[in-house]
Design goal:
The chain is mainly alpha-helical. It has one domain. It is 76% helix and 0% strand. The two termini are 13 Å apart.
């Protein structure tokens, strides 16, 4: 069940990441990232609230609430960075770097928090790291003056923040169900709305960019809910490693739709990623 939740979350997140880049590219303004992120978060709030009857919390403690708030803060900070990185840089590079960093943080911190891994799970975790590194290889260069290094740095920072969110979700009780996901989504929305109003960063969205942004909001909310359940039920390092395979659908869409190239090394990375999932399942 844990693996199913994590895989479904990775697929949803991978598609959402690609569409986040599409949203910003259709708009063409880096400054609009906060606006579109806020729109997607507001839609996400509707989704997570509507999902509450499907997984009503048995108990939601004060500790669960504050862990969820902490997760919401870092998610709110990460999403505009993710959108800018995906929108202005090569998706085939930014997505795997994002995933690698988001996996590394829980992998390092998880054992310190008491997570225990079986031998096969440990091997799977070790295989997942080179998988993410190989998937990150690409000879793509940016054409619009926005440095690839800048985009990758934003992806890495967003990945670190999302990795912290995974750790925070992992501290909530399984009895709290999807309630932490609801609280985190609302927290991220309030935080970003406050920042946008205070900084004057709200801009009028472009019609052609709204449709992919709607999908980003729905898919991201779904990924959050599924990841919350996975982090509650399984070791954070393993769940984070599976979710870190999200660049698979991201890069596949970039290859099929945006015509970004996939190198042989990236294909090897995909194969290793699939092997790591099998090891996690057997473990």
């Amino acid at each position: 069940m844990v693996l199913s939740f994590a895989i479904a979350s990775a697929i949803s997140l991978g598609i959402a990441d690609y569409l986040a880049g599409v949203t910003l590219r259709k708009d063409g303004r880096t400054s609009s990232a906060i606006t579109y992120t806020l729109i997607s978060l507001l839609l996400g709030v509707v989704v997570v609230v509507a999902a509450i009857p499907l997984a009503r919390p048995e108990e939601f403690t004060r500790a669960d609430f504050w862990w969820a708030v902490a997760a919401g803060v870092v998610v709110g900070l990460a999403m505009p960075l993710l959108m800018i990185g995906m929108g202005r840089g090569p998706i085939a590079i930014v997505a795997p770097v994002l995933a690698l960093v988001s996996m590394a943080v829980p992998a390092i911190v998880g054992p310190l928090l008491g997570d225990s891994l079986s031998r096969l799970e440990l091997i799977g975790l070790l295989v997942a790291f080179p998988a993410a590194v190989l998937v990150a290889t690409s000879n793509h260069t940016s054409k619009d003056g926005f440095s690839t290094l800048q985009a990758v740095a934003m992806g890495a920072l967003a990945g670190g923040l999302l990795g912290c969110a995974g750790i925070f979700f992992g501290q909530t009780s399984p009895d709290s169900g999807i309630a932490p996901g609801v609280v985190s989504q609302v927290t991220a929305t309030v935080l970003l709305l406050t920042v946008a109003l205070a900084s004057g960063q709200l801009v009028r969205p472009k019609k052609e960019a709204l449709m992919p942004d709607v999908a980003v909001g729905v898919l991201t909310a779904l990924a959050v809910l599924l990841s919350v359940l996975a982090y509650q039920l399984g070791p954070v390092a393993i769940v984070a490693a599976v979710i870190a395979l999200a660049p698979g659908p991201t890069i596949l869409l970039a290859w099929l739709v945006t015509k970004e190239q996939i190198s042989p090394l990236q294909l090897v990375g995909f194969a290793l990623g699939a092997a790591s999932v099998v090891l996690f399942a057997l473990g």
